[in-house]
Amino acid sequence: MKKFLAYTKDYKKEMLLAIICIEAETVLELIIPIIMADIIDVGIVNQDRSYILLKGFQMAVCAVISLLLGNLCARFTAACGNGIGAAIRAAEFQKMQTYSFSNTDKFTTPSLVTRLTSDVTTIQNSITNGMRPGFRAPVMLFIAIFLSFRLNGTLAVVFLIAAPVLGIVLFFIVKKVRPLYTKMQSAIDYVNCIIQENLAAIRVVKAYVREDYEIAKFEEVNQNLKNTSERAFSLAVLNMPAFQFVMYGTILSILIFGGHLVAIGNMKVGSLTSFLSYVLQVLNSLMMFSNVFLLFTRSLTSWKRITEVLEEEPDITDDRAVTDDKAICYGLAKEIEIKSGSISFEHVFFKYKETAKEYVLSDITFDIQSGQTIGIMGPTGSAKSTLVQLIPRLYEATSGNIFIDGRPIYEFTQKHLRDSIAMVLQKNTLFSGTVKENLLWGKEDATMEEIERACRIACVNEFIDRLDKGYDTELGQGGVNVSGGQKQRLCIARAILKAPRVLILDDSTSAVDTATEAKIKEGLAKGLPGMTKIIVAQRITSILDADRILILDDGKINAAGTHKTLLKDNEIYQDIYYSQQQGGNL
Fold it and tell me: For all residues of the chain together, what is the average pLDDT?
């Protein structure tokens, strides 16, 4: 609860005002039955019209003030609930930004979306809908019971039977329904997973005419959610009939015993009427409290899922980085920076999970001099992409060291390290917005001249004029209105605009023709001469002129050399070369 209360600190004022309004409203509502009893026992019995009008006016004033307080309470609770929900969402999203790839791999994307939306909404609704009855019910319960005993202690003993019965029923309902709430939220994760997968691959689904299969797959998870929700809510709603059974039984008992007391003269009719009002308020309070308890039970399930996201410790941190504060200890003026872009791997091993039996990368050792162009090739699944993702610390090496400018990469802050390295991932990603807005991800304050220069190097200038509004053309989500080759060139231009010390191209020219690829290579060589370049490729033409080519096989370096030496001595390289030569790629 301490962690949850931390998100309420900015809304203490609204919460306090809401509680004051709730309690004041409750007290006023409890006064009304007393006034009603006076009207019957005094005003009506004595036929005192002025007394009746006076008490009626008092009742009306109490009702109006209670209405105004209720309205204020609704406003304050809405501000509190929505504000706390927004704060939790912001904290979750901020935490997700600190995750490494391995952290993200622990949660599925649909699950993270559910925890960021549905689970937060559950907590938000629990606050908005539960605050009023949660603070109102206990006060109304105890005051109403006190006044009931004051009116007639003998008759009030009925509460000592009704309350425990409701409590026992609620205990068993909560015990059964809580695990179902957990299953229900997990079922929502599965539904979101199927929807996301289907929408992301909708073109493949249409191309293979697999709509019926996808519908059946969705129907399965949707039915699972339906069944789980039905079981959960069918148990939760038992609260209402149990309450009604106890309520009507209590009222019936009071009418029987109370009527007898009135008949023998031990109780007045007005007092019995007032007592019945308090009975209804007591039982209503118990009902409200039980509903709040069910809301609280469900929100606890959601908060547990949210806490898992908030407490997930990032695998990659800046604990060992030489920041400005630590630089003095190293005899430096400020945090270290990447200047030359030389890279060294020393006996690097990597596996995605500590429990994995085999390493994805094993004993990787090589050096890249500043300004060199290095090609990386190998069979599919040889961990080429994984290797280059270790350089900007998107994943952390399991053992061994990676150096840039002669320093371990962990001595650089993640921000500076990644600012100095531009990486065009194997899966190209563009964001909704204009072409220019996407390019400015490379450099926020880039001038139009810098943008056009980067686009010339990446051959974006060959098609930009054909777009409806040039650089101001709106791209759909993920860049759906540009071709694969155009998307790749835009991503390369975005990376170039960053002006990094190290440029990593992970199979990022696979969708462009060989002529365009040659132009891009020429542009990179002439336009960015001092930049260290690492090119992961499937086509030999992509790395033909590289200073050195590394051949990966099964997560290990099989060979390293130039195109000529590898073509002469390396069997894997020879197989790739001749198969592509036969396919017309060379």
Answer: 84
